[in-house]
Amino acid sequence: MTKGRIIKALSGFYYVKSGVDIYQCRGRGVFRKKKINPLVGDFVTFDISNPGEGYISTIETRKNELIRPPIANIDQAVILSSATMPDFSPLLLDRFLVLIESKDIEPIIFISKMDVISEDLNKNIEKYQQDYKAIGYQVELISTKKELNHLDSYFSDHVSVIAGQSGVGKSSLLNALKPSLLLKTDDISKSLGRGKHTTRHVELIEVSNGLVADTPGFSSLDFNEIELEELADCFPEMRERKENCKFRGCMHNKEPKCAVKQAVEEGEIASYRYEHYLSFYTEIQTRKPRY
Ligand code: GDP
Ligand code: ZN
Predict the structure, then answer these.
(1) Spelled out in words, what is the top-level CATH class assigned to the domain 228-285?
(2) Topology of the domain covering 66-213
(3) Tens-binned pLDDT, residue by residue, of the chain (291 aa)
(4) Which of 1, 36, 75, 184 has a CB 3.0–4.6 Å from the CB of 190, allowing a cystine?
């Protein structure tokens, strides 16, 4: 039995990397019977049947998994926002942050299109950068049209996915990190390549000693998987203060003597972050039951 990690899934085959070698594998029939789907990112054991070929026999328990792109054991997600076109939206950024935090994936924030903005907007974005850094997040202001070597250290030794709304530059970023990818960007009309011929192909590509999913993630931005009780834990600055709330299980909403609300009043927690918390709170509270 040999150990490895699935780095690519294509047409029923799983490509398992073990050391420097890559084996073309199929899953054992038992997976199909149990409806277990090996995923890109899975740590597996496999039996070598022929040189370079094998059968996956076991899958290690996953740390986490995403549905789109279908990838397991992700370490970090780069949330790409743009400073302009589309406008920078802290509300949308916070939505991504909550979704990523809830999956135990480490978020990193990149803000693109810094090459085309006015001085005023630049100041505005730098202010947000400070706010998010104060929470403990890493925030890089970038242009996908320029040298990106300084981003290498973010990717090394990690498995990353790139997330962000349409048009922020995800394909441009992936292309800049890995020029051989040749992903279509908005300039080369992505829609042409879409449609029924799209194969379900996911691959982890090597970028600066790390692995990055070649398909951007998080298409669904609803909070259906998030419970009200865990929402505050997806805000690090609230998570670290909850011990100081008077009531155990404080939801930092209507409760008195709430350390979170006090920190908002004292300006230690950005008021827009707290407002976003309340708006997500209402969204989760009022969501329709799923079954
Ligand atoms: P995606 O939908 O997130 O994959 O975005 P694309 O990579 O397709 O980029 C959308 C548009 O923004 C394209 O016209 C890109 O050329 C442009 N773009 C992406 N990143 C930058 C950037 O950093 N600066 C500038 N000026 N344009 C960018
Ligand atoms: Zn509280």
Answers:
(1) mainly alpha
(2) Rossmann fold (3.40.50)
(3) 999 999 999 988 999 999 999 999 999 888 888 888 899 999 999 999 999 999 999 999 999 999 888 999 999 999 999 999 999 999 999 999 999 999 989 999 999 999 999 999 999 999 999 999 999 999 999 999 998 999 999 999 999 999 999 999 999 999 999 888 877 887 776 665 544 434 457 899 999 899 999 988 876 789 999 999 999 999 999 999 999 999 999 999 999 999 999 999 999 999 999 999 999 999 999 986 655
(4) 184
Distance of CA 67 to the CA centre of its chain: 11
Q: Is the dihedral of CA 172, 176, 178, 181 positive or negative?
A: positive
Residue ID of nearest Cα to ligand 1 atom 24: 113
Q: Is the CB of 81 under 6 A from ligand 1?
A: no
How many whole angstroms from 192 Cα to the centroid of ligand 2?
50
167 lines ligand 1 (CB under 6 A): yes
Quote the CA–CA distance of 31 and 10 in Å, as a whole number: 17
Q: Does residue 52 sit in helix, strand or coil?
A: coil
Rounded Cα gap, residues 115 and 139, in angstroms:
16
Write down the CATH number for the domain with range 2-61: 2.40.50.140
**Quick check: 215 and 69 in contact, CB under 8 A?**
yes
